[in-house]
Amino acid sequence: MWRPVVLVQLLRKRFAPYCVCVGVVVVLVTYFILMQPEPPPPDTHSQPVFSLEWPGAKGEESHPGLPTLYIITPTYKRPEQIPELTRLSQTLMHVPKLHWLVADDATQLNQDVVDYLKHTGLPFTYMLTPMPERFKRQWFGMLPKGVANRNGAIAWLRKHASGGVLYMADDDNTYDLRIFKEMRHTRKVSMFPVGLVTKTGLSSPVLQNGRWVDWFDGWIVDRTFPVDMAGFAVSVPFLLSVPDAGMPYIPGYEETGFLNSLHVTVNDIEFLASNCTKIYVWHTRTEKNHPSTRDILDKKYDGTNLRQLQKGMIIK
Question: What is the DSSP string of 158-212?
Fold first, then answer.
């Protein structure tokens, strides 16, 4: 018959290594959690530190019967910045009655961006909306990118707009012109599918017989509205009716946080794109490019056209 003391000693000898491993894991997990910053407060009323308005070649007085589309595009300095703004602008040039809100995560005006925006002939407002320093600490390895940009544009809308529809169009997406036509008369919030999103390849409301039954997205978790940023539009009068609405600085919860702040329910949502059976926007992404080598700085190119081309490049 085993004595209690002997039994305890045998158990300690057999399971001690496992206990040590479990203990180490618990300590590491606890340390990892404690080292994460607390979720930052919403701070949804970030004001642009600078804005420059341009009426565009045609102005907004054309098509007087149409509500204005306010297209919010966050951007930041990188090798792809001008190319991606170029691609998006070529689409927007075919959309009547819009105002482009280009929100730059920067503290100084980027003259190359401003010059290009003027070249497009589109009515635009260029604004500086840098991410506040207190939000630059990563939350579980992620940053709330684009939140300051979008909140800055929303703050601008609250001051300068009374009607129309806002849509958050990132510069690395691809858009079918039909989506702009359909969203233009949004009463509160409209939604539609987005292609090429996460491993599922699609983010969309799930409808059955024209009625919402579920969500389809690669990042559902506990989000009330598990949708992509490009998958909804909001009426400006409806936005203005909710003074505290804005986007939280919580990575992964930007979309649902903004929609929750509007106090909308599924019953408020208009489902576009033929009852969400068609895809008119895709979450395409441009391959990231490294800064260019310093070869172009060689003195043998002094006095050549390369010196002019160099001005638009980001060099190591």
Answer: HHH-SSSEEEE--TTSEE-HHHHHHHTT-SSEEE--EES-TTTTEEEEEEETTEE
What is the block-wise mean pLDDT of the chain (316 residues), using blocks of 10 residues? Answer: 50 55 49 41 65 76 85 95 96 97 96 96 96 73 85 97 97 96 98 92 93 93 96 98 95 95 97 95 84 87 83 80
Q: Are strands 194-195 and 189-191 parallel, antiparallel or unpaired?
A: unpaired
pTM summary value: 0.82
Cα angle at 232 between 230 and 234, to 5 degrees?
A: 125
**Confidence at residue 29, expressed as pLDDT on a 0 to 100 scale:** 42
Measured CA to CA, the distance from residue 191 to residue 186 in angstroms comes to 9
Of the candidates 282, 264, 73, which has an alpha carbon nearest to the alpha carbon of residue 168? Answer: 73
Q: How far apart are CA 176 and CA 282, in angstroms?
A: 9
Pairing of strands 124-128, 50-54: antiparallel
Whole-angstrom distance, CA of residue 33 vs CA of residue 27: 10
Tokens of 261: 């702040």
pLDDT recorded at residue 7: 46
Measured CA to CA, the distance from residue 251 to residue 222 in angstroms comes to 13
Query: How, if at all, do strands 189-191 and 269-271 pair?
Result: parallel
Question: Does the active-site annotation cover 255?
Answer: yes
Catalytic residue of the set 61, 182, 255, 270: 255
Confidence at residue 54, expressed as pLDDT on a 0 to 100 scale:
87
